Structure formats: structure tokens, C-alpha cells
Amino acid sequence: MTTARAVPAGPYVYIPAPKHSVGTVRGALTKDGRLITLMETESILRDFLNVMGELQAEAARRWGETHSWSAFSRAE
């Protein structure tokens, strides 16, 4: 099994289940040293974080494009 990477999610840290793990292995959320094992919601949280990561990458790409070119000339 490969080790899953922890993902910050606000004040929590999401630790996904290892890829290709058996169905009994679950991911978890942690906060202040407390561990919450995800039972039914892990796939929903994983999908949500994947989509949010894609949106963040797209926003960063677009932000870079808007700042690298401006329709306004600078006053000199």
C-alpha cells in the first residue's frame, strides 16, 4: 500500500486511507490531537477535496494570467 498524503482542511487535517487499501481501512480527520475515523463520508470528503483542489489550481492559473497581462498601460 502507498502512504496517503495528509491534507489541511481548515482547522482539521484529513488523512485519507491508503490507496488500494481494503474496505475496512478508513481515512480520518484530526484536530488538536483528536482523531475522527470516517466511516460513510470519506468518499464524499475525498471527492470534495479533489474538486476544490482542481478549482484552486484553475483559479491560480487564471490569476497568474490576469497579472501577467494588463489592458491598461502604466503611468510613467
Notes on the protein architecture:
There is one protein chain. The chain starts with 6 loop residues before the first strand and ends in an 8-residue tail after the last helix. Strand 1 (7-9) and strand 2 form a beta hairpin. The longest helix is centred in the last third of the chain and has 27 residues, at 42-68. Helices cover 36% and strands 20% of the residues. The protein is built from one helix and four strands. A four-stranded antiparallel sheet has the order 1-2-3-4, with no helix packed on it. With 76 residues, it is of the alpha+beta class.
Itemize the secondary structure elements and their pairings:
Blueprint: E1 7-9, E2 12-15, E3 28-31, E4 34-37, H1 42-68
Structural class: alpha+beta
How far apart lie the N and C ends? Answer: 59 Å
Helix proportion: 25-40%
Average pLDDT rating: 78
Can you tell me the residue ranges where pLDDT is under 50 for at least 5 consecutive residues?
Answer: 72-76
Would you count the extended β strands for me?
4
Radius of gyration: 19 Å
- How would the global form be characterised? elongated
Order of SSEs = EEEEH
Strand order, sheet with most strands: 1-2-3-4
Largest sheet: 4 strands, antiparallel
